[in-house]
Amino acid sequence: xxxxxxxxxxxxxxxxxxxxxxxxxxxxxxxxxxxxxxxxxxxxxxxxxxxxxxxxxxxxxxxxxxxxxxxxxxxxxxxxxxxxxxxxxxxxxxxxxxxxxxxxxxxxxxxxxxxxxxxxxxxxxxxxxxxxxxxx
Length: 136
Hints:
Layout: H1 4-16, H2 50-65, H3 85-88, H4 91-100, E1 102-104, E2 107-109, H5 118-132
Antiparallel strand pairs: 1-2
Helix pairs in contact: 2-5, 4-5
């Protein structure tokens, strides 16, 4: 499984597509929805504990993404409920976005690598996947 992160990044690139959106080099996710409601839900394994992730999400993520995952209908932050492209991305792409932050379309998600432990980041993503998306 040594090559899994490379495969995940390559797969994420295919899902994101080639666009000219303005992102920092270490930020992989974009704030620009691409065929938001036209993609079927994709199931991903949970990288951590969704029960522990609920506390992390409410403490560190819900101010922007909102407790209901809507991100104020995508105006403030990524909308995990209506924009299915967000959670269609592989775990490594989303974990990288949480760790290193994202800058796109006048929206900034700050990096959380100095705020949350790697375990907390994985737990938060597990909670997001279980609550707002499709997961195994």
